[in-house]
Amino acid sequence: MTQPGTVRVGPAGAPVRQASLREHNLALVLRQVAAGVDGRPPSRADIAAATGLTRATVSALVDDLIGGRLLTEVEPVPRTGAGRPAQGLVLAGDGPAGLGLEINVDYLAACVMDLTGAVRHREVRRTDLRPVPATDALARLAELAGRAGAAARSQGLHLAGTALAVPGLVTAAGVVRLAPNLGWHDIDVPAILAAGTGALQVENAAGAPTPQAENAAAAPTLQVENEANLAALGELHAGPTGPATFIYISGEIGIGAGIVLHGELFRGARGWSGELGHIPVHPDGIDCRCGGRGCLERYAGQEAILAAAGLTGPPLPADAAIGRLVELAERADPAALGALAAAGTAIGVAVAGVINLLDVDTVLLGGVYAPLARWLAPPVRAEIRRRVLTAAWSPVAVQPARLGADAAVLGAAGSIVRGVLAHPARWLNAPG
Ligand SMILES: [Zn+2]
Fold first, then answer.
1. pTM recorded for the entire structure
2. Burial degree of 89 (CB within 10 A; 0-12, 13-18, 19+)
């Protein structure tokens, strides 16, 4: 018997207050459905058996989740053993969805992801944003967001929230303190978007179900986060077989990193960890936009690689230029191979320092590094072997990001989806 005011301890050891017990159990059921049972959609009885909840409790929770369009029933799967086959449960592909947005130095991106993780809409717009004021860049982003919201609605989805990936240092309130390659200082992204067309807020207000009153304040409409952090989280949740401790390196015009330790993103004391691109690899080297000298991104950023490979003119869109670089490298073009080897060496020098400090055992190459990983990884590995004390007996894996070049925008949308699955009660209309 639980006394009023006492707490119960959940499976993970966290105290569970009575008021949030239902939320906890709803999320538990969703996790069980997402995980499946023996590779098939679980029945209510399967979920009861796996969670220890009673069948009556599971049935009530499942009914609420189906009513909120978070779960859906599928045809029974024939199975061996006695008894009627029961209806299976899967995450709903027509309920809440996450909107991921990315603003980077030379492109904008949007994607809509449903609860099953399927991408339902995607748009990338190549455009050099360096000469563009932040307000104009964000207005262009709002256009992509508006099209994504319309695409979601046309497929019967409603947007549960928006996460925006930016290549810079972001405060908890969504203010971009500094994005050197965009030339942004103290840009209040949520305020600018709200003051503009309001596309993001309108999409959320029109599309989402009415959150329960007590949860309304907690329902996020827009979260702004460093792009490498969102990409790292996307990689962490991309499948059950991935590493739990790794550094994700985002190669773009700038270079960022997301550090994941034991399955948790390491943000640092103020949320600003991961500025790998501004680690000096030549202390007296080339000036950097950050005010320092010899920073990694001056030697291994996208523009540095393309320039060294002789691909600076005539101007090519960046994705076409990277594609051209891949072609040249496949043909063993000396300039292309030399550019990639030099960049990989510079990355390896910087990342070896990180590995010596943090003991991460996996390096994921993301952004434009993902399609170039065949050529970048060998010199990165060589520098790790030379410079990391433990490398002789404890090798470090260096591999392309599983989500490829789109990890940040996919990670952004996925962070909203995971938020719905972890806190489902606010998407249900039934009282708690
Ligand atoms: Zn720098």
1. 0.86
2. buried
